[in-house]
Amino acid sequence: MKTTRREFVKNSVAAAAVIAVSGTSFVSESKGSGNFLSEPASFILPPLPYDFAALEPHIDSLTMQIHHDKHHGGYVNNLNKAVAENNLKFSSLEEMLKNISTFPATVRNNGGGHWNHSLFWKLMKPGGGGPPSGKFAEALNSAFGSFDAFKNKFTEAAMKRFGSGWAWLVVQDGKLEIGSTPNQDNPLMDVSELKGNPVLALDVWEHAYYLKHQNKRADYINAWWNTVNWDEAAKKI
Ligand code: MN3
User: Fold this and answer.
1) What separation in Å is there between the alpha carbon of 160 and the centre of ligand 1?
2) By the 8 A CB rule, do 123 and 229 touch?
3) Sign of CA dihedral 136, 139, 141, 143
4) 75 alpha carbon to ligand 1 midpoint, in Å?
5) CB-side exposure of 5: number of CA atoms within 13 Å?
6) How far separated are the first and last CA of the chain, in Å rounded?
7) Helices (H), 123-202
8) d(CA 129, CA 167)
9) Ligand 1 center to residue 117 CA distance, Å?
């Protein structure tokens, strides 16, 4: 009898113990046996895809180092701790986020933090920025009128997010939308007002910019536009 994925997950958890996840991705389901691969049984801090200094002068090396190693590293450690302490069962980080209202708050904060940062690092690159081209540029033009109009609207969302949070470009029911979320929430979460699949993400927590820009979030956002990895973003539409 063919079981649905949800039933499969439910029936498999007893055998699977803690579910294996590498970075943000589920490692694999061992085909045929009906069990999930259970090693390594924890989340892993993914290495930055470039050096700490690679985004200079736009984003400084020390900020990148602390942000990646200490902040993102902290989310990963605390997420692993929460999973172990609460004996949590889930099939992937994404599935956990989609049902986040059923998990403890520490999973919302640290699971969101892990997922968001894993995406954020990949959406920047040395020599990034500039307007995108091809189909992605056309999609932005058709959704927002022009690249500049898109950029202004996204910047506004990032500026208006009060306190800590993220600005997002998402695909929502086949349409591109801009919005923001508080804290480490993201548009995959069932509790989020903004919903959709993230295409572009910008961390506007003070830890992302305070060393270099102090309170000037606008300067950080301006600098960040010079790092955007449009090729990576274009894969998500
Ligand atoms: Mn951050």
Assistant:
1) 17
2) yes
3) negative
4) 10
5) 5
6) 35
7) 134-144, 147-160
8) 17
9) 6
What's the CA-to-centroid distance between 71 and ligand 1, angstroms?
6
**β-strand 25-26 against 21-22: which pairing, if any?**
antiparallel
Task: Report yes or no: 171 and 237 within 8 Å, Cβ to Cβ.
Answer: yes
Regarding pTM above 0.90, the answer is no
What one-character DSSP code corresponds to residue 209?
T
Query: Taking a C-beta distance cutoff of 8 angstroms, is the pair 166, 181 a contact?
Result: yes
Q: Which two tokens stand for residue 188?
A: 């995959």
Q: Find the helix or strand (DSSP H, E) in which 203 lies.
A: strand 197-203
Distance 171 CA to ligand 1 centre (A): 22
Output the tens digit of pLDDT for each of the chain's 237 residues.
444 444 444 434 333 333 334 344 433 333 333 333 333 458 999 999 999 999 999 999 999 999 999 999 999 999 999 999 999 989 999 999 999 999 999 999 999 999 999 999 999 999 999 999 999 999 999 999 999 999 999 999 999 999 999 999 999 999 999 999 999 999 999 999 999 999 999 999 999 999 999 999 999 999 999 999 999 999 999
The CA distance from 231 to 67, in Å, is 23
pLDDT in tens, 14-59: 333 333 343 444 333 333 333 333 334 589 999 999 999 999 999 9
Centre a 10 Å sphere on the Cβ of residue 2 and count the other Cβ atoms it contains.
5
